[in-house]
Write a structure and sequence with these properties.
Blueprint: H1 30-59, E1 69-72, H2 79-89, E2 96-100, H3 108-111, E3 118-123, H4 128-141, E4 146-151, E5 165-171, H5 180-190, E6 191-201, H6 224-227, H7 230-237, H8 246-256, H9 265-274, E7 277-286, H10 288-296, H11 298-305, H12 310-314, E8 315-324, H13 327-338, H14 344-368, H15 375-378
Parallel strand pairs: 1-7, 2-3, 2-5, 3-4, 5-6
Antiparallel strand pairs: 6-8, 7-8
The structure holds S-adenosylmethionine.
Length: about 400
C-alpha cells in the first residue's frame, strides 16, 4: 500500500445525508420483476446483436479503437445484461468486488445474485441512511455474501490494500470523475494481477445532452453546452430549483459544480490502456436524438463539426471490460522501463513474446473472430475464447 503522504488526499463530498426517501430496489414492483426484466433478458439480446451489425456499417469506419458492440439508444444497456456479460469473462461467484460510485446502493442488487464473497460499495457522497436500510435487506436476501458501504473518493482509496479486489465495477460514474487518470491508477493498484475492471458510463460530454440537461425542452437545444457562450448557457440552465423534475435538477447540479470528466470516448480508451489495463470488450452507445438533431439542423451540424468529430457528437455512452496485466506481463513492462531497450536480453524477450502472441494467441482468436486482422492481437484486442461475439 502506498503511504498516505505520497498522495494528495482529495476530500469526500458534503456531510449532508442525500439519501432518497424511496429505495425501489429493496421492493421491486411485480411488473419490473415479472415482465420488464424477462423481456430485457430474452428479447434485447438478439435485438442488440442485430442492431449492432446495422449501426456498425454506419459508424465503425469512424472509430479510432475496436468496438465489439454498438447500441442504438438505451435498449440493452441494463445493469443485468452488463453483469451477465462480465460473468462470461470472469466467474463472479466467490470474488471480492468493489462497486465504485455506488450512489445510494441500487447497483449492488445486480451484483449479489452471483454470490460474490464480498461486495463493497464506495461513494463520494453521503448516503448513510439508504446504505443502512439497504444493508439489512441485502444481508437477509443474500446471506452468502458480505456487504459493506464506505464513503471515499475514487482517486484515493487508502482504506484498501494493494491487489485486494478481483473485480472493480462502476455504473454511471466515470462521466463525473474530474481526474480520470488518478482514478485508473487507483483501480490498477486495487486490482489483483489478472483482475477485471468493468464500467458503463454516459452521457459523454461532447454528445447530445452531454451535460445531463441541454435538450430537455427542444431537440435543437441538445448541444447548448457546446455551442453557447458562458452567460447564455447559465441563463439556459436557469436559477430556480426544479422541484417539478428531479432528474433535471440532478442534471443541473452536475453542471453547476462542473462535475464532469469532459472526456471523449477515445480519451477513456487511451487512459485505461496507458494506466496498465488491457481491453477485453468495448461497447458504444449511439444517441438516436443526437443523430436526429444533426440530421435535421444543418447549421448547427456545421458549427459543431468545425470543432468536434461527428462520432463524438453522437456517442452517448460506453461499456468497457478491461483486465489488469498478469504478473508476468507486468514484470516485462518493468524490465523494459528499467533496462536499456536495445540490450540483447530485452530484444530476445521481446522477440519471443512477439512470436508467442502472433502464433498462439491469434490461432485462438481467429477461430472466434475470423474477420479480424492478425495484427489486432498485437494491439492487445481481446482473444478470450469463452466470449462469443459477433
Ligand atoms: C449518477 S450517480 C450513479 C450512482 C450509481 N452507480 C447508480 O447507478 O445508481 C454517480 C455517482 O458517482 C459518485 N462519484 C462521482 N465521482 C466520484 C469520486 N471521485 N469518488 C467517489 N464517488 C464518485 C457520485 O457521488 C454519485 O453518487
Amino acid at each position: 500500500m502506498r503511504s498516505a503522504d505520497q498522495r494528495e488526499r482529495p476530500p469526500t463530498g458534503p456531510a449532508e445525508d442525500l439519501s432518497p426517501e424511496e429505495l425501489p430496489w429493496i421492493r421491486p414492483s411485480a411488473f419490473e420483476s415479472l415482465v420488464k426484466r424477462p423481456i430485457r433478458e430474452f428479447l434485447y439480446t438478439p435485438y442488440t446483436k442485430l442492431a449492432s451489425r446495422v449501426i456498425a456499417r454506419r459508424y465503425a469506419s469512424q472509430t479510432q479503437f475496436p468496438v465489439d458492440l454498438w447500441l442504438w439508444g438505451q435498449r440493452g444497456n441494463d445493469y443485468e445484461a452488463h453483469r451477465r456479460r462480465l460473468n462470461r469473462f470472469v466467474r463472479l461467484g466467490n470474488t471480492k468486488i468493489l462497486v465504485a460510485g455506488c450512489g445510494a446502493g441500487r447497483d449492488l442488487v445486480s451484483w449479489l445474485p452471483y454470490a460474490p464473497r464480498l461486495v463493497v460499495g464506495v461513494d463520494y457522497l453521503n448516503y448513510e441512511r439508504a446504505w443502512n436500510r439497504s444493508i439489512d435487506y441485502l444481508r437477509s436476501r443474500y446471506p452468502r455474501s458480505s456487504v459493506r458501504f464506505l464513503r471515499g473518493n475514487l482517486q484515493n482509496l487508502d482504506a484498501f490494500e494493494d491487489e485486494e479486489f478481483d473485480v472493480i465495477g462502476s455504473d454511471a460514474v466515470l462521466e463525473h470523475v474530474t481526474n480520470f487518470p488518478a482514478v485508473v491508477s487507483e483501480f490498477v493498484r486495487l486490482l489483483r494481477p489478472g483482475g477485471f475492471f468493468y464500467a458503463t458510463f454516459g452521457p459523454l460530454w461532447p454528445c447530445w445532452q452531454g451535460d445531463h440537461y441541454s435538450g430537455w425542452d427542444e431537440l435543437s437545444n441538445g448541444y447548448n453546452h457546446l455551442v453557447m457562450d458562458q452567460s447564455s448557457y447559465q441563463q439556459y440552465l436557469g436559477s430556480e430549483k426544479r422541484e417539478d423534475h428531479p432528474e433535471l435538477e440532478e442534471g443541473r447540479m452536475w453542471s453547476k459544480y462542473g462535475l464532469f470528466s469532459y472526456l471523449r470516448a477515445i480519451d477513456y480508451v487511451q487512459t485505461l490502456s496507458d494506466g496498465g489495463l488491457q481491453a477485453q470488450f468495448t461497447g458504444v452507445l449511439i444517441e438516436p436524438r443526437g443523430a436526429r438533431c444533426l440530421r435535421q439542423f444543418k447549421g448547427l451540424r456545421e458549427k459543431l463539426l468545425a470543432v468536434h468529430k461527428e462520432l463524438d457528437l453522437v456517442i452517448a455512452g460506453m461499456t468497457v471490460i478491461y483486465r489488469r496485466h498478469r504478473r508476468g506481463t507486468h514484470r516485462t513492462r518493468c524490465l523494459l522501463a528499467r533496462e536499456n531497450r536495445s540490450s540483447p536480453v530485452v530484444l530476445a524477450c521481446l522477440g519471443s513474446g512477439l512470436v508467442w502472441r502472433v502464433v498462439a494467441v491469434n490461432c485462438v482468436r481467429r477461430q472466434h473472430h475470423p474477420r479480424r486482422s492478425w495484427w489486432g492481437g498485437l494491439r492487445g484486442q481481446s482473444y478470450d475464447p469463452r466470449v462469443c461475439r459477433w
